[in-house]
Amino acid sequence: MFKRFKNKQTTTVQKHDRGILVFENTTEVIRAEKILRDEGWEIDVKGPPPEIRSGCDLVIEFPLIEELSIIRKLLAVNVKPIQTVPVNSVLLEPVDLLQEKEYGNFLMVRAANMKITVDKNTRLIVNVSGGGCPDVPYLADQMVNKFLHDTPHPRDIGYTLCAYALQIAYDRLVKICSE
Amino acid sequence: MLGIVGTVPEENFPLIEGTAILDKNHIIIDNKSIAVNRGTPAMIAAAAKTLQYMDKPNPYCYLVGDIGNGKGCKTLYKHLAANFSKIQLKTLALHYFQPDVNLFKEFLAVINSISDRPTLIADAGFMYVAKMGGDASFFDLFTPDAGELAYLSDEKAPHPFYTRGFILHEENQVPELIKRAYLHNNAAKHLLVKGAIDYVANKNGILGTVDSPQEEALESIGGTGDTLTGIVSALIESCLNIKASSLGAAKINRLAGSYANPDPATQIYDIISHIPQALEEVFQN
C-alpha cells in the first residue's frame, strides 16, 4: 500500500492538471484511497497546501480532468469529500525514511514520530509508542499483546496522521519479519 | 496548582474536570476511574507521584474521551475557551490532543487574557498544533523526542508525518536540530529533548544533558515520554526553575526506568511505581 512513498524526493514542480480531494478526517482519506486505487486511478496521498490546512490533514491528489467520474465513484460508496480544489501550490510528501533498531530479541521500527516494537521470535507486538494525536493511546491499547498477523491495522481503526505513520512502520515490520 | 489537559482513549468517556487522585494503577477524577496505561493518564500519574513527594496539591485535570476522530477534543477546546479562566493555575501542561489550529488559537487567546498566565508546557498533539499555528514561542517548555524535534526543526512540515527526509536523517544530531528549530522560531522558550541523551536547551544553546543511567529499552516503551512530561511539569509547579526541573526530571525518569529493570515489553505503570524512589535518590543527593 505504501510502496509508492519510498525513494521519493519532494517535488518542486507544480502540477496544474491535478486537483485535490479534501476529506473530513484521515480515515475517509484512507477509504477513498483504497477505492480509487482498486479502480485503477492514478492518485497520490499528500499533505494539503497551507491555505486549506487546519490540523492533522491528508489529501488525495488526482487528475483534475477526471473529477466528475471520481466524485461519482466516491459518492456511490458514500465517501464524500468536503472540498475539491485544483492544485496551485507544492504539496508535501509523506515521510519516507524509516529507522530500525534491535534490542536483543526485540525489533523496533520508527516512521516519523511513531514506533512499534515486536518480539522477533514470537512476532508479538510488545509496545507502540510516540505520536501525539489521541488515537495513539487507543491504537496501542488495540495492538499491544497481539501477534503481527492478527492485530487490527492502524489504517482500519485509526483516524490521524499518527495512525498513518504507524501503518507505515507496521508494514515495514511485517516485511522484515517475513524475509 | 498544576493543570493538565489531555485525552482518554475511550470514545464514550465524558468531558470531565477536577482534581486527580492516584489510586494504585488508576487515577480518579470526578468519581471516574481511569486505568494508568500510556498517554495522558500516565502523565497525570507521574505528575501526581511527583507532586505528592514535593508536598504540593494534586493536579487539576481537564479530560475528554477521544479515539482520534477529534469529536471529544472539539468539545473540550470549546469548554476550555469558555471556562478555563475560572480556575487559577500556576502551571499548565497540554498533552495528547487533536491538532486543530483554529480552536487552539481561541484557547490560547483565553490564556493570553489572564494577567498572571500560567507557565505553559506542551507535549504531543498540543506541541504539534502550537508549531503548526506559529505559536511555539508562546510556550515555556516543549518535550519532544528526536523524531518530534526533527519536525520542529523542519520549517515546512505541518505535522511530523511530513518531516523531510534530509532532516529526519540519523546523521542530523540533536544540537543541530535544536539550533534549526530556534532559527525558524518553532521551539518553546526551553526544550527538553528526550532520547539516548536527554538535552535541555534554549535559544542560546544546550544548557545541560543527562545520559545516565542508560536503559536502551526505554525508547520503545510506550509512556516513558508521558512520565517525563508529568515529572517536569510537577517540578516546575514546585517552584524549581525550568532548567533545573528539566534536568532533574530527566534524571528521575531514567532512574525510575532503571529501577523497573526494563525490557521492550515493560509496561509504563511498572516505571511510574518507581518514581518516588527516584525522587528520593535525586533530592537526597
Description:
The complex is a heterodimer of chains A (179) and B (285). In chain A, strand 6 (106-111) and strand 7 form a beta hairpin. Residues 1-13 of chain A have low confidence and may be disordered. Chain A has helices at residues 26-38, 67-76, 135-143, 154-157, 161-178, and strands spanning 18-22, 44-46, 59-63, 83-86, 98-103, 106-111, 114-119, 125-130. In chain A, the strands form 2 sheets. Chain A has a 4-stranded antiparallel β-sheet with strand order 2-3-1-4, covered by helices on one side. Chain A has a 4-stranded antiparallel β-sheet with strand order 5-6-7-8. Chain A is an alpha+beta fold. The longest helix of chain A is centred in the C-terminal third of the chain and has 18 residues, at 161-178. Chain B has a single domain (2-284), classed as Ribokinase (UDP-N-acetylmuramoyl-L-alanine:D-glutamate ligase, 3-Layer(aba) Sandwich). Chain B has helices at 40-53, 71-83, 101-112, 124-132, 146-153, 165-168, 174-183, 224-237, 242-259, 268-272, 275-284, and strands at residues 2-8, 16-19, 21-23, 26-29, 32-35, 60-65, 91-94, 119-122, 141-142, 190-193, 198-202, 205-210. The radius of gyration of chain B is 17 Å and the shape is globular. At the A-B interface, strand 5, strand 6, strand 7, strand 8 and helix 3 of A face helix 4 and helix 5 of B.
